[in-house]
Every structure is written in structure tokens, then in C-alpha cells.
Fold these 3 entries.
Entry 1:
Amino acid sequence: MAITVGQFLNSHNVDFSLTKHRHTDTSFSSAISAHVPTSQVAKAVMLKDQDGKYLMAVVPSNRRVMIDKIGRMMGRQFFLIGEHELPDIFQDCEPGAIPSLGQAYQVDMLVDDLLLEQDELYIESGDHENLIHLDHKQFHKVMHDIPHQNISGYRMMFSQEHEGRHWEWE
């Protein structure tokens, strides 16, 4: 677990446990590997506006961020940031293992409403082999002053069936 994440959780008296899993590259894969529902794993997606201000959008790992909707809500245009920018923000995290705790890194956040409805949640710990497990009460304790909205949509996946290729909504 990243030092900043551990210090943040401890300083806010958050009860949590770690769920170990095989090394994975995405939050969705972490959920599968850890045998937890993909809808309960919070995925951090880093965005930047035209002025260079960062925003962490947090959505379930089985959904996608609706960047255009966030832009309309916030009154400015957002873009996905490049992977090369992440180490500057999350210095104690492994590349790509971004914890959904922007406040620990002084990054503004917006959380999807679907996550607030879950009984249990898991977030990346800053490495690619552990998820932080929080119950509903502890997740709300961490996110109590973070704005939330419906900011996620279905993931579109390419699948190949016996009769040809097509796009599916997950």
C-alpha cells in the first residue's frame, strides 16, 4: 500500500482491510482476481481541464466515465491525462495503480452515485497486488465532503462471436 494512502486512512481513523490478488493492470482485472464484484471496485480516472487543473473521477470498475457529462456539469472541458503525468501526482504509487483517494494527494474529486449505494467497496492501494476493503460506513466517512453525481455509463466492449464481430454493451 502506498505510504500516503496508509497515512491518510490512519489519520482519518478509517477501518479497512487489505484484499490481496495476483498482479493486475486494471481495476476491473483486480476485481476479477480478488473475486469481488466489479461494481464494488472504485476506479480512479484522472482528467485535466484546459487550464491544467486535475480532477479525479471515481466510478465502478465495470463502468466508463462520461467525460462530456462531467464537462457540462462543471462548465469546462476535460481530457484524460497521459500516463506519463501520473507519477508526478502519485509519487509513491506504482505506475497505473491509482488509489481512489484524491484528497490524500490534494486532487479534486467527483464520485459516481453508484458507488455510494454499495454495501462494500474496494479501492486500489497504490500497488498492483492489493485492494483496500471498506464497508459502506467507512467509504462514506472517507467521501463525506466529496461531490457526487451520476458520471458513469456502460462499458462498450468488442466481442467476437462465431457469426462475426460486434460491439456489446456491458
Entry 2:
Amino acid sequence: MVAVQKLPPSPVRDEPAVRVWRFVREPFEADTWRRVAYALLAFPLGVVCVPLALTGAPAGRWQRGLVRRFLDGPEPSGSSRGPAHVGSGSSRGPAHVGSGSSRGPAHVGSGSSEGPADGMSGSSRGLAHAVLAAPLNLLVLAVTVYGWSLVPMNLGWPLRAGSDYADAWGGPTFAGAWAFHAIVGGIGFLLLMPWLGRVMAAVQLRLAAALLS
């Protein structure tokens, strides 16, 4: 008889620890900063595309390119683009907000071969997206700039603090006020903004998929 050696049981993953680690590392993921870049660029590009689309310029192609570059990742050479995905990780699945969503994939067309036959429709789609997405993109831009600016402002609170800490949050001592600003306003927003950016980018992607596809 051949003796069968039992393999040791695989260690059980500590799911709460994995979730905490994923939450903590999100500010340092490349996808997070791609979403920040899109939040900063989407509104000014849309403003520029409005008059250019009226002249027949391929504004839709430019906006689709921005979406693919920052919300769908770089397109590998020689491969077909799958459904757009907002999130982190190497696999590009359907775009969704949160887990367990039953929505279909949000796909933004490539628009790389926009010729004379569909140039006008591409310009019309680009104009529609530039105009209709402007309020959302402006809101996302304002929230992104304000939220991320709070991180260095609160971590470096002593640089802008006066000499009286009695009325400061965490006061009346200097150490207490700095600790409160650094932990709540600095580290707190550092951990919050990437996840808020996920939600805002998912909404922007859905709108782009509806108007630019």
C-alpha cells in the first residue's frame, strides 16, 4: 500500500484583518490617484470641449480617452478592452458601486476610429457629455480638492496655528490640539477620501458610459 501523506490545513484568512489592511492601504494605491487625476481633469476638459465640439472637433473621443486612461486603466497593446471598472486590482470587471451590485457593465466605447461618417455624432455625444456632466464634474472637483487639501493642512497644523490653543479643537494644550487635528483631520481624511473618490468616480463613469458610448 502507498502511504498517503496528508497536507497541513491551509491557514484560515483573517477576513476582518484583510478588510482593515485594504482600507488602510487604499490611499497608496495607483488606482486611487488615477481617480484623483480624473476628478481634477474632467471638468476643465469638459469646458474646453464645449466650444470645440460646436466646431465639429472629436470632443467625444477626447473625453472617452480621458475616461479610459484614468478610470479604466491603460489599454494593453494587442488586447481588446473589456468593460470599464472603477476600483483597484488587476482584473477589469464590470463597473459597480459597492459589493453585491446587480448592475450590468458600464462600457465606454473606444472611439479610436471616429471617421467622417460618425464624426458629427461623436461631436454631438461629446457636447452632450461636456454639458450634462459639467455640474457633476465641478462638484467632484471641489470635493476632491477640498477633501485632499485637509490632509496636509491638519497634519501641518502647527504651521498655521496661533499662540492661543484654548479655543482650538483638542485644546487647550498644544499637544492635544495637534493630535486632534492630525488624527481626525489629517489621517481621517487620508483614509476617507479614496473611498469617497471611488463612489464619485463610479457615478462619473456611469454618466460617461451613458452619454459617450
Entry 3:
Amino acid sequence: MVVSSANTQSFVKLIEYLNCDGLDSDVATARLRQRLLISTDISWNIYENLLNYLGNSPYFKVIYHQGTLQIISPSSRHEIYKKMLGMLVENYCLETGIRFYPLGSTTLKSQEKLKGIEPDQCYCIGSKKNIPDLAIEVVITSGGIQTLEIYQGLGVYEVWFWQNGKLQVFCLENYEYLQKKK
């Protein structure tokens, strides 16, 4: 679904579209998990209001980039991959004695840069910081907002993408991401 409007009515349409009534039903949950919404001309205020409305809902992942809003309802396959990659990072850190702080899908945002994202998993390494050192994204469907540009603007040092059974690693160097080879 695509919504294009820059007023409060667009916020109401988003809320109606994402109405969480009936989430206890397996059929309703399955239907909601297939939803992807991209809206344009969305103000920062509407983005903030939507985040407040949704709270810490595990049913939706919200991404905002300079007026474009994307809302994804992750599938169970997405959640399995995200959890497995997170366990890989956590076990590696525990085994090697690296201090880490798991932040899960904490919302990262900057009103000044008009960017906001909820990584699938993210971690601070060494010490707790406002912006994590590592973000992990599981890509099941494509065609949405390019998240690497958001992470770049927020200053996340390393981003991992799991897509089609392959892991891609990007590291921020001189304000640009470089893909690391094996």
C-alpha cells in the first residue's frame, strides 16, 4: 500500500491501515505479517506520532528517510534469521571476551537529518553509546527505502545485511560505506 499525503489525515490513514485489532487470531496475524506500507510526504511530526502510537510493538518495523515512511510487518522467517545472526554476534563476543551491549531493535533517529530506523539487531561494542557500532538487517523483500543511506547519516560504523542466504558486511570509512570481502 502506498499513501501520499502530508497532513494529519495521512497519519489517520496509517493508523487505520495498521489497526492491530484481532492480533490474537492466527489468520489476522498471518495477514498483518505480509504488509508493507510506503508513504511519501510524511512530516517528522507524523513519524514521531506514529512511533508513539505503535510503542514497542513487535509487529511493525518503522523506517523514515527525509519524508518517506516505510512500515514492514516482519515474517516469521525474518525473525528467525534476525535472532540467529544476533546469537552469532553475542556468542562470538562472549567466547572472545569482547564487552558488548545488545540494543535489539532500538529506534535510531535524527530529526536534524530526517532519518530514523529500527535495525533488526544492533550492538554497541566496548561501551554503551547513543549510536550502535553494529546494525544487522535481514532483507526478505526488496523495493523499499535504502537503509544503508540512513545508517550512514546516523554514523553507524558497521552494517550487516543478510539476503538470499548471503551475508554482506559494510564498514563506514571516510563517511562512505565500503563492502568488505571475505
